[in-house]
């Protein structure tokens, strides 16, 4: 990526953020004949787009905050190996967001949130296959089940709230026995007595390579990529200016797809958004000695294991410590125990940790669409755990907004001013 002077260049659209969301926005815009420049301080797909569990689900409709969750939180938070960890020094900063998170889980809110999530996830596997058509990366999108594994058979019940939400939305589900689970996943521990399958899913064998494949396609279509750290944005008459120190990029329209860093770019315009850097860890076992065939959720430990081309990756947990805190890779190495719990014969000696920042709003929904009172500025950030699955539809919506086309999607649930 070039870092030379670009004072005189002007594009129809500048996109800040080269994660999977920004790249899908760029592709949808350049396909409609617009000139597009994409700016990021890092190389494309190096953040949360790199280190996710690889689940590509068209059925994401259960938000993180649901009725009754508050009963589990105290146990999770005090467990040093639990799925949620809040650093003590960050607790005071976290509490206002945490209260909004619990409020978002009220019964009268979650059904609408679930519908809005599913709109963004709809047809995501087929969308990726369309985007990757005629590329070698097409083979990295693999059909699979999403297996939710339970150690006690009675816990695998469709009566639980999350499964009821999915059934209401006609998500294809089935309940299987321990023997059927062993047939699907021969390496899984016999301690797991039942599982619920979500059908018609896909998984990414290498999320980063998929992103790079889309970048190559975007470049071939004329999208310009620049590696620069964005200092601030401003509007000069009818032109948006993206300021990157010595470099400035000019555009008629500007899209914020910078994940957790989007909020700070909007703060000078009076937006104080409840966007958390929900820090997620993964552990990659490069020589696992076993093979798994589907994405597998250990429901008790709230972590997901999936086979990648580079090994078996297990991801999960949420750490709240702010954007800039140093990683605590002990959170990743906890997954060694989780992997052994799932797969007794797995070799966890050659394991690589990773940490990324998921941009998470309290209601599990992103901000998408025009930014109120700032003509020509569009939001496309805050996708939390669901960015990989929601990126293609987000790109489509942003392209429709910028082209002034009615997409048929009600943008009310994703409005940036919904938190005022």
Mean pLDDT, all residues: 94
Q: How far apart are the first and last residues' alpha carbons, in Å?
A: 38 Å
Task: Please state the CA-atom Rg, rounded to the nearest Å.
Answer: 21 Å
Helix content: 25-40%
| Major sheet size, sense and barrel closure | 10 strands, mixed
- Please provide the count of β strands: 18
Q: Give the second-level CATH assignment, the architecture of the domain at 10-49 and 208-272 and 363-419.
A: 3-Layer(bba) Sandwich
The portion of residues forming beta strands comes to 25-35%
Shape, please? globular
Do you know the CATH topology of the domain at 10-49 and 208-272 and 363-419? Answer: FAD/NAD(P)-binding domain
Number of contiguous helices: 13
What's the name of the CATH homologous superfamily of the domain at 10-49 and 208-272 and 363-419? FAD/NAD(P)-binding domain
CATH level-1 class of the domain at 10-49 and 208-272 and 363-419: Alpha Beta
Class derived from helix and strand content = alpha/beta
Q: Uncertain runs with pLDDT below 50, 5 residues or more?
A: 1-6
Give structural notes.
- The model is unreliable at 1-6 (pLDDT under 50).
- Strands 3, 4, 5, 6, 7, 12, 13, 14, 15 and 16 form a 10-stranded mixed sheet that branches. Strands 1, 2, 8, 9, 10, 11, 17 and 18 form an 8-stranded mixed sheet that branches.
- The protein has a domain at 10-49 and 208-272 and 363-419: FAD/NAD(P)-binding domain, CATH 3.50.50.
- The chain is globular.
- Helix 1 runs parallel beside helix 13.
- A hairpin with a 2-residue loop joins strand 9 and strand 10.
- By secondary structure, it is of the alpha/beta class.
- Helix content is 29%, strand content 28%.
- It starts with 9 loop residues before the first strand and ends in a 17-residue tail after the last helix.
- It has 13 helices and 18 strands.
